[in-house]
Design a protein that fits this description.
Helix content is 34%, strand content 23%. It is α/β, with parallel strands linked by helices.
Length: 612
């Protein structure tokens, strides 16, 4: 339901209003339906809030920017209360001297609201966030703002990242978090705060990540951090791995297109330093498990959501085929609430691009509570899941700005293939097959580039699909989860209804949908099940379905059966999804463009879902 809002704060010299506006512009990709900011000149608090986009900057204050010492800004996805000026952030306390912005959901907001109303607070919005401002105002006695902020946070239940400014304490932003990310960066004479490191990179690559239950006072000369027991906390400065160019479009029409085209490099980066040819295997530096412990694994349990869940489904086939380890893939959102049985010897893998996905994080905590060993597979260094797992594998794909995941997905598949190879070699896979698998992996980046060079073929199909309102994707084995992913991509950004179906299930019901107006994307690049896929295609043809096929180079039979086909280079079947994902991503992109959709900011979606 709710998705990721954006927080940005700045304390220091310069055009504060302009810096805040640019900061939340860098968070636009996370999705939002309203925005606002609050700045102070040390005498008054100036607030502007607007529904809609920031496209035409409407920041107007009755103060000169040069007199402002700092402020906070916010982009909001509506959760409690419709998108409107009154529900947009920042929210004020009764005095109008304290302003807050908030990401997350306060689960006990109704009880807090009733208490505050009885004490005389008047609420001006429908949001859960406004209770935070009034709580701080009630605790603030005019002398100790830090304590008031801490006492208010102690009462909150749920997920929050909160930033606050007050007229009475110039040059200071207070910020705290629980289950919603906050990152702080310091440069000479100023401090920046954001819910995403990408907004901080233009200022500095040296950052501090606040942990759950911590809050900080940010001032131009530095920062101090405490926990909610009011004890000081020493924080380690970490280095962001990417630079400012990584969070800019760089001349491309959309971030999604840029990220699709980056995949030859990001897949190579996911493999870099992890191929061990001498032993025909892979190696990892942060698993935190000995080889003997890995040999004793009796089951793998994968926790993920969305695109990462699709990667996990492919991972299941990889682990079961290459390493002979039974594998179960759970929706992370369901794992906490279903009957959970984690047998001894179970290894849990948590897959999340952002490392902040709320449902996956909650599932990780539950798995740890049950005594399981948990490895994180994440893209964002310093993310909550990466920190809490304390062991796992980074993707090294660089920041992914497009809401529809592309390069992170293929990097996840690459890492899962490497991990399956490593576990397989520990558990009896022959050296010969290990070397053959490594050879095929090393060819993948160049093969992805070859697929990208065939984009015109995808565009031809996209022109046909863009005219339809329903599409089916079918595949078997490794290509069935890919059918789910292709359908998701089309739904996400072009708003065309699509379903991914196991090809063998067509005859058990879905074939009733086939007619001359139904495009069917057939994934048929695996060699092991090619004959079975031909039978499915014949069934579709006999009912008039329009067939668009992703096939292996040189597969002429399918080229004759399909209305149009997209060939991909030959590779081992377990690696087919990495290559076949590319035309599906391009298809979704081109269809969205053909239909005039906002590719990077699809309606109702955001990049990371950090509340349940």
């Amino acid at each position: 339901m709710p998705a990721m809002c954006g927080i940005f704060g700045y304390v220091g010299q310069g055009d504060v209003v302009g810096i805040l506006a640019e900061g939340i512009r860098r968070l636009e990709y996370r999705g939002y339906d309203s925005w606002g900011m609050a700045v102070s000149d040390g005498k008054e608090l100036f607030v502007v809030r607007r529904p809609g986009r920031l496209d035409a900057l409407e920041v107007r204050f009755h103060t000169e920017p040069a007199t402002c010492w700092g402020g906070i800004a916010h982009t909001r996805w509506a959760t409690h209360g419709e998108p409107s000026e009154q529900n947009a952030h920042p929210h004020l306390d009764m005095s109008g001297r304290i302003a807050i912005v908030h990401n997350g959901i306060i689960e006990n907001h109704e009880r807090l609201r009733e208490r505050l109303r009885r004490e005389g607070c008047v609420f001006r919005s429908e949001t859960d966030s406004e209770v935070i401002a009034h709580l701080i105002g009630k605790f603030y006695d005019g002398t100790n703002l830090r304590t008031a902020f801490m006492d208010a946070l102690r009462l909150l239940q749920g997920a929050y990242a909160v930033a606050m400014v007050c007229v009475d304490e110039p040059n200071t932003i207070y910020a705290g978090r629980d289950s919603s990310p906050l990152v702080v960066g310091r440069v000479e004479g100023s401090v920046v705060l954001a819910s995403d490191a990408g907004a901080i990179v233009p200022f500095t690559r040296d950052v501090v990540y606040l942990a759950d239950g911590e809050f900080a006072a940010l001032r131009p000369d530095g920062m101090r951090v405490w926990n909610l027991h009011d004890l000081p906390v020493e924080k380690e400065v970490q280095r962001i791995a990417f630079d400012v160019g990584s969070v800019q479009r760089g001349g491309y029409d959309h971030f999604m297109l840029k990220e699709i085209l980056e995949q030859p490099h990001t897949i190579e980066d996911a493999m870099r330093g992890r191929l061990f040819r001498g032993e025909g295997t892979a190696r990892f530096g942060g698993l935190g498990l000995t080889e003997n412990e890995l040999r004793e694994i009796r089951q793998i349990r994968i926790l993920a959501c969305g695109t990462s869940w699709h990667a996990g489904l492919i991972g299941r086939y990889l682990f079961e085929e290459l390493a002979q380890i039974p594998t179960v893939v759970d929706y992370a959102a369901e794992f906490r609430y279903a009957s959970r049985m984690l047998d001894p010897g179970t290894l849990v893998l948590a897959i999340s691009q952002s490392g902040e996905t709320a449902d996956t994080l909650a599932a990780v905590r539950e798995a740890m509570h049950l005594g399981a060993r948990v490895l994180g597979i994440c893209n964002v260094v310093g993310s909550t899941i990466a920190r809490e797992c304390g062991q796992g594998i980074y993707l090294h794909a660089g920041p992914e700005i497009g809401v529809a995941s592309t390069k992170a997905f293929t990097s996840q598949l690459t890492v899962l293939a490497l991990l399956a190879l490593y576990l397989g070699r520990l558990r009896g896979m022959s050296l010969g097959y290990g070397l053959r698998f490594l050879d095929a992996l090393e060819e993948i980046p160049q093969q992805v580039q070859e697929v990208l060079e065939r984009a015109d073929r995808v565009l031809e199909i996209a022109r046909e699909v863009a005219l339809r309102e329903n599409v089916l994707y079918i595949g078997r084995l490794y290509e069935y989860p890919l059918a789910l992913e292709g359908a998701l991509k089309l739904k996400e950004i072009s708003y065309v209804h699509a379903e991914g179906i196991p090809a063998a299930e067509l005859k058990h019901g879905p074939i009733a949908l086939i007619d001359r107006d139904m495009p069917v994307v057939v994934l048929a690049a695996q060699s092991a099940i090619l004959a079975k896929m031909k039978s499915n295609v014949q069934e579709i043809r006999s009912r008039g379905g329009r067939i668009f096929a992703v096939v292996r180079d040189g597969c002429r039979e399918f080229s004759k059966l399909a209305e149009r086909s997209i060939p991909i280079p030959a590779t081992l079947d377990p690696l087919v999804p990495i290559l076949a994902a590319i035309p599906l991503q391009l298809l979704a992109y081109y269809v969205a463009v053909q239909r005039g959709c906002d590719v990077d900011r699809p309606r109702n979606l955001a990049k990371s879902v950090t509340v349940e």
